[in-house]
Amino acid sequence: MDYNGEKMSDAEGARTRDQLNKFVKLTHRPPHGETLAGHRTPPARSGHRCVADNTNLYVFGGYNPDYDESGGSENEDYPLFRELWRYHFATGCWQQIQTDGYMPTELASMSAVLHGNNLLVFGGTGIPFGENNGNDVHVCNVKYKRWSLLNCRGKKPNRIYGQAMVIINGFLYVFGGTTGYIYSTDLHRLDLTTREWIHLKPNNPPDDLPEERYRHEIAHDGQRIYILGGGTSWTSYPLDKIHAYNLETNSWEEITTKPHDKIGLYSGILLPGDAIAVYKFETVSSSATDII
Question: Which CATH class is domain 10-291?
């Protein structure tokens, strides 16, 4: 499947496989080394969220404790970044987007997803971390550059951060996260038409649920939601087995992943159509995970 959920041709699929394990550093300069007056790049940060369409990469929020690096006296939200940036793939230029409306103040470890022209942001934490959390859905229309609060009803998730979310067939699914004290294995669903939250209760015994976690990622193929990585303050979860939520049966399944035949020490899972591959590389002294 491609980004839009359409089946790729065999040739396109082969090219996709050839790109696995190949990294390309994107320059922030326009072609031929030209620079545009007034164009800046976003300061270094962590805890931000990135989403993309075919034209732009959007970067929202984040944290940097370095006073000078995060903007000094000009950054009223230090050590957080209450800002939205856009990177245009064709020109290689960054632009800080000036928006109207109320931008959320929970600016670290929120979850974000791009749905058409709408950037949806849920949860996250502010200062002090773990004590100033959110559970609202904020929407920024990136075409008209305006923020709004999505007024919802029903059983909202707790005020959490570090959760992950995805939109499937008009529903927003949110899994996991933490209050700063308690880690979650909850799965919530928001109907984007009626704006009603429900807390899903999968048909599994408690021992068959995914482990509680935060800072994980989510992928889906239209039939299942795959939970990738994450952990707690005392552990991180390996990728040799992952959990998948079956939308049709309302149940969790455990999937054993298979190593990629070209990458050796990496292990991964290829979803139908090679939509996503997850790798874990291990050495004697350390391990690292990458999502390609």
Answer: mainly beta
